[in-house]
Structures are given as C-alpha cells and as structure tokens.
Please model this.
Amino acid sequence: MSGKTPHLSPVDCTCFRLRGAARRMTVIYGRHLAPTGLRISQFSLLGLIIAGGPVSIGRLSELATTDRTTLTRNLRPLLADGLVEPAAACGRRRAFVATKAGRALFKRALPLWAAAEQEVRKALGARLTADLHGTIGRSMERLARL
Model:
C-alpha cells in the first residue's frame, strides 16, 4: 500500500449502508408486528427479558448490544404498557421481568415475527441469509475489540 488514503465517498460509508439495510428490515418486521403495537426493538427486548428474566439492565444492554441510554428509552414503553416491570429487589442492580400481559403479547407476536423472518429469508435466499448472519457475527466480534 502506498500510504495514500483511498478516495471514499459518503455513499461508500459502511455505517450508512448498514443503517440503510437495517431500516429496510425494520419496515418489514414493523409491518408484520403492527397488529401488536410492538416495534421490532421492543419485541426483541421483551423476548430477551422473557428468556433471561429477571435480567439486569447491564446484562440486557449486553444482550441487546446497545448502550444503556438507548435501552432505557426502548424499555419505557414496555414499562408504561405494563409489559415488563422491575423485578423484586436485587440489591443495587436494576432488573426486569415480563408481566403476564407481556408474556401473552409476546406469544401473540411470535408468529407475526416468524412471518417477517420468513419473508426476509425468502427474499435473500438461504445462502445469502447464512452469509449475512456469518458476516454480521464476525464483524461484531472484531468491532467489539475496538
């Protein structure tokens, strides 16, 4: 390599392209989940809480690969709608569990999410889906080192 910085255009920005793909995916999942009133981010958080509850805010942040500020913002509607609630005292850590209503809504949303997942997988095809999952996984591992 000559040491020169390659000419890059903002449309070549990796983050820009990834966010664009995520927005397209969000539209598909949002269309399917609309009858439940859940956004895909809320659906995912509710699922993580159901699977791991009671789950601390720190652990939930790790599982969702998001910062605590964004996580708190995404948790607010779930708390307000009575879908999750603070767990019984866990010392100083804040932890959450799904309520009966939250578990019921998640159960209702699960087949809608599965339909969205199938739509995406059909559009991409099995090979591209597997490649995408592998690339994302490896990318996340490398980016975690930064």
Observations:
- DSSP finds six helices and three strands in the chain.
- The longest strand covers residues 95-98.
